[in-house]
Amino acid sequence: MAINKLSEVEISSAIAQLAGWAVVNGKLQKNFKFRDFVEAFGFISKVAIVADKMGHHPELFNVYNKVTIDLTTHDANGISALDFELAQKIDRLL
């Protein structure tokens, strides 16, 4: 099944439903801040489990208590509905 890149209008509509996510350099991005490194890394582990079950793997960046997540669908060459689905699941982990 082909995954399609969303249009700018579709992205604008979908992003309005999410808190704290933005399009940065063509990727859906959100920054998270935790109490310490262990809490941040625990969150990354939870994200990894959810993402792997979806077969959709985000770009995860961690510096001490900060985590940045970038979502894009390489097969679609941009942001797809799959990215928004994962973003919603990530937000539910908090």
Automatic annotation (TrEMBL):
Question: Keywords for this entry?
Answer: Lyase
Q: What is its EC number?
A: 4.2.1.96
A matching Pfam family = Pterin_4a
Q: Where is the signal peptide?
A: none
- Which catalysed reactions does the entry list for this protein? (4aS,6R)-4a-hydroxy-L-erythro-5,6,7,8-tetrahydrobiopterin = (6R)-L-erythro-6,7-dihydrobiopterin + H2O
List, in alphabetical order, the GO biological process terms annotated in this UniProt record: tetrahydrobiopterin biosynthetic process
Q: Which PANTHER family match?
A: PTERIN-4-ALPHA-CARBINOLAMINE DEHYDRATASE
State the family it belongs to: Belongs to the pterin-4-alpha-carbinolamine dehydratase family.
HAMAP family in UniProt: Pterin_4_alpha
The molecule here is called Putative pterin-4-alpha-carbinolamine dehydratase
